[in-house]
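Database export, one record per block. Field names are fixed; values are copied verbatim from the stored entry.
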Amino acid sequence: MKAENVVEVLNRLVRQRGAPKFLFADNGAEFTGHLVDLWAYHHNVRIDFSRPGKPTDNAFIETFNGSLRHECLNLHWFDNLVEAKRLIEAWRIDYNVSCRFLRSRPSVTG
């Protein structure tokens, strides 16, 4: 992914939901370059980078990425971009509903 793509997505999210206070990112070139830094400056967003080689710093997104791959991407062969977007969006909605349901349940202790 290129920094230009990251900024494009961030701008779309700002239009839909407003700017976040923080952006947590890994140390990929698409996040550490001047373009994303400039975007963050203009939107008053603080970028917090994970420590290199420490996936536990970003456990939630690592879990999400694993679930996306295991539950969606590995199960489908996409014929075109429209189909890929449709199936991934359907999976994302289901994932978010499932996560909300699980968070609303009281924890079970033994």
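Remark 1: Helices lie at 3-17, 29-32, 34-42, 59-71, 81-104.
Remark 2: The mean pLDDT is 87.
End of record.
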